[in-house]
C-alpha cells in the first residue's frame, strides 16, 4: 500500500454488476417501525438484530431528532453485537453507526468505547454531550451476514448506539481499493450546497455535508440533467453546485489537518462545469499535492462530470491538496464535491472456521449461550467472555469457561475444537455419561466437570491420559470403570440412551464375540439348547427395558440457532477541511 495511483476516470456508463438493494435502518432502543418523512427512510426497532442491552430515552430537552431520541446501552459483557443477514457474500456495503448521548443517564459523562465490524477494529468512539457523532465504513462482505459490535474499553463507561444503517452499493463503486481493505470515511463534502444531501437525492443514502471556504465564490449549475451513472455515482444534487475563486485568484486548496497522524487515503474529487462555455472561454486546471502536480490538465464537462481519485497515498496532517488554474485557462478553477477516506488494514478472515462452526453447534444446544454474536476471538482482545483464544492467524479457541452457566442436559460432541487446552463445565446440571471425546482432544490439560449430574464410569481415555488434570467431584452417580457393578448399572440405567464410552464398548464387543466359544467348551451338549433359550430370554428383557428408556422425556435438548435471531463521522464533524482560494504569491491556506 506504499505506492500511490492517480487516475482520470473514463466517461463511460458502468454496468451494475451487483444489485444495491440492501437498505436496513435500525433505530436502536426503539420498538416501533415508522417512516421519516423528511428523508423517506423506513426505520425499524432493533430488537430482532441484537440479543442484549437496555433501551433508554434521551432527555426531552436534549432531543435533536426522532431517530436520536432512543438508544441501546450495554452494561454487561465485554462486547455486544448486532447481526444483519440481509446482505450477500461478496456484496459491497456502506455501514453507518450513529451515537447521540443526550445525557440519557443524567450523569453528564459521555462514554468512550470500541466499535468493530466482522471481527475487525473500526474506530475508537468518543461521544459528546450534545452533538451527534457518526462513523461510516465501506467494504466487501466476506460472509452471508455482517456484524457490528461495541466493546467496553473503560471502567464504568458503557457502550451505546443510537442508530445503525446498512446500505448496499454497486460493486463498481469505490473499486480502486483492494476488496480486502475497508474504507473509513473522514469527510464527504458538497461544495456550494446550503443543505445536507442524502436519501432520496442520493439513492445510496450517503451523507454529503455543505462546504465552502475563505475567499470562495459559490456557483450554481444551469444544467437540467447531469449524467451521474459512472464512477462512484455522486447524486446530481451534489453536482448542481460548486465553489470557485474570482478571476484574480488561481488556486483552491484544502488541508488534511483533521487527520491526527499520517494515514493512507483514498480521495475522490468531482468536477462538473456549471454552464455551457463560449468558444472563447476555457476552464482548465491541475491537481497538486503540496507543490507537485499529480494530474494532467482537467477540463470539467457540462451536463456530465469528471471524477479524479487518489488511492493508496500516504499523507500527513500538513499535506495540502490544490486545484490550480493552468496558464491557458480563461476561467478560475472549480470543484463540486470531495470524499476522503482512510484505508484500513487487510480484513480478517475471522476465527478458525472449524472452531466457529463447532461453537455454533454448542450454542444451538444451550440457549443461554445464544446471546453471544460476532467473531468469538476477534478483534483481540475482545473475545467472548467465556472463551480464550490463541494469538495465531487464524486464532483458535483454546479454553471454554462455562462454570455456573446453568447448562443442563447432555453434552454435544465438540471434539473438532482440537486446540482446546482448558474446559471448565463445573457447577452446572449436565447429566449422562462423561463423553469419551474429551480423551481425543490432543491439547487438553485441564478438565473440570465438578458438581454436575454425570453418571457411569470415567472413560479410560481420560483417566489414562498423560498430562491431564481432571476434577469430577460432586457427581454422585459416577463410579470406577474397573467396578463391574458400575458398568452393569451404566448399561441398563433408564434414560441413558447415549453410546457407551470407548472402553465399555470394547468389553461388550469382546463378550459377545467369545460367548459361543465359551459355551461350546464348558457346557455339556445336552444342556446347550436350554442355555441358549435362557440367554435369549435375558436379551429380550434387556431390550424391552432399553426401549422403554428411549421414550423417557427430557432427553432431547436444543434451541434456535444463535444466528437466525438476527440479531459527526470518524471524528466530531464540527468542521470540514479548511478550504481557501489564493494566488501563487500570496497563499492564505493553513
Explain this structure.
The protein is an alpha+beta fold. The chain is built from six helices and 36 strands. InterPro entries: Leu-rich_rpt, LRR_dom_sf, Malectin-like_Carb-bd_dom. Keywords: Leucine-rich repeat, Membrane, Repeat, Signal, Transmembrane, Transmembrane helix. It is a single-pass membrane protein. Its main location: membrane.
Number of E-state strands: 36
- The percent of residues in helical segments reads 10-25%
Secondary structure class reads alpha+beta
Most strands sheet: 12 strands, mixed
Instruction: Evaluate the radius of gyration.
Output: 33 Å
Please give the alpha-carbon distance between the first and last residues. 28 Å
Low-confidence stretches: 1-19, 490-533, 535-575, 584-590
Shape descriptor reads: elongated
Strand content: 25-35%
State the oligomer.
Answer: single chain
State mean pLDDT (0 to 100 scale).
83
How many helices does DSSP assign? 6
GO cellular component, one term: membrane
Protein name: Malectin-like domain-containing protein
Keywords: Leucine-rich repeat, Membrane, Repeat, Signal, Transmembrane, Transmembrane helix
Membrane topology: Single-pass membrane protein
Amino acid at each position: 500500500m506504499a505506492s500511490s495511483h492517480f487516475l482520470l476516470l473514463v466517461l463511460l456508463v458502468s454496468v451494475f454488476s451487483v444489485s444495491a438493494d440492501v437498505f436496513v435502518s435500525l433505530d436502536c432502543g426503539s420498538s416501533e417501525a415508522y417512516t421519516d418523512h423528511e428523508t423517506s427512510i423506513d426505520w425499524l426497532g432493533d430488537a430482532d438484530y441484537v440479543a442484549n442491552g437496555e433501551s433508554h430515552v434521551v432527555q426531552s430537552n436534549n432531543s435533536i431528532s426522532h431517530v436520536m431520541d432512543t438508544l441501546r446501552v450495554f452494561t454487561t459483557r465485554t462486547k455486544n453485537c448486532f447481526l444483519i443477514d440481509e446482505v450477500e457474500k461478496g456484496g459491497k456495503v456502506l455501514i453507518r453507526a450513529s451515537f447521540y448521548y443526550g445525557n440519557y443517564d443524567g450523569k453528564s459523562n459521555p462514554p468512550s468505547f470500541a466499535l468493530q465490524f466482522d471481527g475487525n477494529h473500526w474506530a475508537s468512539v468518543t461521544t459528546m454531550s450534545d452533538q451527534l457523532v457518526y462513523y461510516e465504513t465501506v467494504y466487501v462482505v466476506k460472509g452471508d451476514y455482517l456484524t457490528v459490535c461495541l466493546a467496553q474499553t473503560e471502567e464504568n463507561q458503557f457502550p451505546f448506539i443510537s442508530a445503525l444503517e446498512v446500505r448496499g452499493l454497486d460493486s463498481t463503486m469505490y473499486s480502486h481499493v483492494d476488496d480486502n481493505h475497508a474504507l473509513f470515511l473522514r469527510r464527504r463534502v458538497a461544495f456550494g450546497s446550503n443543505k445536507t444531501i442524502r436519501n432520496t437525492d442520493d439513492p445510496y443514502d450517503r451523507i454529503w455535508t455543505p462546504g465552502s471556504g475563505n475567499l470562495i465564490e459559490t456557483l450554481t449549475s444551469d444544467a437540467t440533467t447531469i449524467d451521474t451513472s459512472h464512477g462512484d455515482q455522486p447524486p446530481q444534487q451534489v453536482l448542481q453546485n460548486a465553489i470557485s475563486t474570482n478571476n484574480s485568484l488561481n488556486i483552491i486548496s484544502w488541508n488534511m489537518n483533521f487527520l491526527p497522524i499520517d494515514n493512507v487515503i483514498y480521495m475522490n474529487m468531482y468536477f462538473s462545469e456549471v454552464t455551457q462555455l463560449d468558444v472563447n472561454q476555457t476552464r482548465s486546471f491541475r491537481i497538486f499535492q503540496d507543490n507537485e502536480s499529480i494530474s494532467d490538465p482537467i477540463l470539467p464537462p457540462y451536463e456530465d462530470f469528471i471524477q479524479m481519485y487518489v488511492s493508496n497515498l500516504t499523507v500527513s496532517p500538513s499535506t495540502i491538496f490544490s486545484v490550480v488554474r493552468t496558464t491557458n485557462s480563461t476561467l478560475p478553477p472549480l470543484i463540486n464535491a470531495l470524499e476522503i477516506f482512510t484505508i484500513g488494514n487487510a480484513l480478517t478472515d475471522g476465527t478458525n472456521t472449524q472452531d466457529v462452526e463447532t461453537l455454533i453447534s454448542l450454542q444451538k444446544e444451550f440457549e443461554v449461550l445464544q446471546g453471544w454474536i460476532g467473531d468469538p476471538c476477534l478483534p483481540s482482545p475482545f473475545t467472548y467472555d467465556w472463551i480464550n483464544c490463541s494469538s495465531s492467524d487464524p486464532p483458535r479457541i483454546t479454553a471454554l469457561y462455562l462454570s455456573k452457566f446453568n447448562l443442563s442436559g447432555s453434552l454435544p460432541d465438540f471434539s473438532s475444537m482440537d486446540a482446546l487446552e482448558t474446559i471448565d463445565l463445573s457447577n452446572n446440571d449436565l447429566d449422562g455419561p462423561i463423553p469419551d471425546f474429551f480423551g481425543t482432544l490432543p491439547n487438553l490439560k485441564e478438565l473440570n466437570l465438578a458438581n454436575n449430574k454425570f453418571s457411569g464410569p470415567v472413560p479410560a481415555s481420560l483417566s489414562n491420559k498423560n498430562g491431564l488434570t481432571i476434577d469430577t467431584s460432586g457427581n454422585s452417580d459416577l463410579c470406577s470403570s474397573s467396578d463391574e457393578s458400575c458398568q452393569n448399572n451404566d448399561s441398563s440405567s433408564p434414560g441413558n440412551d447415549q453410546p457407551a464410552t470407548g472402553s465399555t464398548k470394547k468389553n461388550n464387543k469382546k463378550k459377545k464375540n467369545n460367548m459361543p466359544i465359551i459355551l461350546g467348551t464348558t457346557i455339556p451338549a445336552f444342556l446347550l439348547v436350554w442355555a441358549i433359550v435362557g440367554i435369549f430370554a435375558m436379551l429380550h428383557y434387556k431390550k424391552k427395558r432399553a426401549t422403554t428408556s428411549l421414550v423417557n422425556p427430557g432427553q432431547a435438548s436444543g434451541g434456535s440457532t444463535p444466528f437466525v435471531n438476527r440479531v459527526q463521522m470518524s471524528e466530531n464533524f464540527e468542521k470540514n477541511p479548511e478550504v481557501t482560494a489564493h494566488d501563487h504569491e500570496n497563499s492564505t491556506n493553513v
